[in-house]
Task: structure prediction
Amino acid sequence: MQVFESIKLAYSSIAGNKLRSILTLIGIAVGLFSIIIVMTAISAVQKSVEDTFNRIGTNNFIVQKWPALQMGGPHRRRDFRNRKDLEVKEGEKLREMTSLPTAVGISLSTGGRTIKYGNEKTNPNVYVAGVNFDYFIALELKVSEGRNFSKSDNDFSKPVAVVGTDIVDRLFKNINPIGHTIRVDKFSYEIIGVFEKRGSILGQSQDNFICVPLSVFQKHFGSERSAAFAVMAKNKDLIDETMDEVIGAMRKIRKVPTGMENDFEIVTNEQLIEQFNDITKYFKLGSGVVAFISLLAAGIGIMNIMLVSVTERTREIGIRKAVGAKRKNILTQFIIEALSLSWFGGMIGILLGVIGGNLVAVLLGVSVVLPIDWIVIGLIVTSFVGIVFGVYPAYKAANLDPIEALRYE
Result:
């Protein structure tokens, strides 16, 4: 009963000191809101990124000229830029020199292209890739309609294409695209297949692209660009061994001297996820600093309100002690009041943070999440603030002399 009575008294105290209470509650709410909104948004994005990369595959990796994320200063970027481009013939040699990969896909690509069909056209942001047959296997690209490339499509340079769902949605409303001809610049391609929908990462669509045979791409767009090689291991357990074999073969192919670092990059899904998590830790740190400052200010506010409450209720405390209330009863009552005040603001901050974080997730086009772990952490932090900053006022109230308290006016 004492707990419920103390909670009731706590909310009476909040109602009786509206301005001070609101300022304190805002401080706690802002502190929890700032960290919960960031953690909710980051959790939603992380889940989306991990799901997308895992959908692409966990036993494959990419060999390319550039790192996935370019860290370091201008000197480091210049080093990457000065690397020799990867060539298609190097990918063909890689396939011949290695035995562990199940497939070695070779690709050349160009972006910012407009795809046309009849009077319809896409925005000039479509990614066009020239790929060999193994590319579909290495990246586990599945076709939902039609077929993917055959060996003869590449050998005989057939002008065919497999397109992403964004292209279909834009150009072929209520029309089966298979067999129809699209144009890219002055070149025409017959659609033979449509890829399964892959979704988006951070609002960036993974379906706004088309693939044409590698030999056709070289004819139409040239080879003066760096290739990329998609490698699939037999299974996840062999990915490290496969990677080592590929690195050794690439160093031989590109004649990298012993002791020199690789002049190419190996990019795995795990690395991309780790790099993304490294970036988000700075957002977490920033929100943590804001939360700490807000909660410190809010905790001082709680202490102030509780000290004022002790002063205003000195006579009441004296009466309670006179009729038999013990020190621990008074101490418990005021700690519960401080805790209730802290929890009230904390719950508001957590609720707004979860809603705000998921609104950010929706705007970024990723699935909403309920960050149970951060909600629990938020409640623990809120409880800690209430108890720590409520102990001194509670101790002061519990140690009032009942005679002096009864005389207080």
